[in-house]
Amino acid sequence: MKKQDKIAIVLGATGLTGSFLVKELLDDPRYAKVKLFSRSKIGFSHPKLEEHLGDVLDLKSFKTFFVADEVFCCIGTTKAKTPDKDLYHQIDCGIPVKAAQLCMENGITTFIVISALGANPKSKVFYNKTKGIMEEEVVKCKIKKTHILQPSLIGGRREEKRFGEWFAKQLLKIFNFAMIGPWQKYKTIHPAAIATTMAWLANNKYHKIYIESDEIKTINQDCKG
């Protein structure tokens, strides 16, 4: 793998997928620095790591430091964690959109963001609608290399308890084996697969903006194969 001196920004680094992505980028010789913007420290140190602490809802206050080759956005919350719909929208939609706008303003040409399968700005489901609006606003920024990942339910262990999500995972464990053909994209997906795919997309040409869950898995498998 050719060594380069790229700088990556990761938002949502303390989350499940974000933590996998940070470790992957730190191990990648193509990256000289990985910048994190968050409210709290990630919990370990590394010579490539640069942390900026503050209110990510006011992301534009970081504009001076928001300089990189690529931005990866793994931001996401839940109804249980953020019951207030306005705050939920500010996090799940507002932060990624502000990040995309900063990319445009600071000349960053690669933006890769995690959305969700079923995202639709016209959906009657608040979660899907929020993700759909976010996608629309991100695309409007016209960043040269934009990829929007739409995973199904993300597997793996989280620090906080999410009973509804846990219950859904148990059901999917039962039905995953029966999901074939067009239903494959609804199978649970591991956060490491999403992280690997995000890193691959940043370093390779890929023509699609929207990438659904089954395609994320395919890219991940190709990376390993």
UniProtKB/TrEMBL annotation:
* Annotated NAD(P)-binding domain residues: 12-131
What's this protein's name? Answer: NAD dependent epimerase/dehydratase family protein
What is the taxonomic lineage of the source species?
A: Bacteria, Pseudomonadati, Bacteroidota, Flavobacteriia, Flavobacteriales
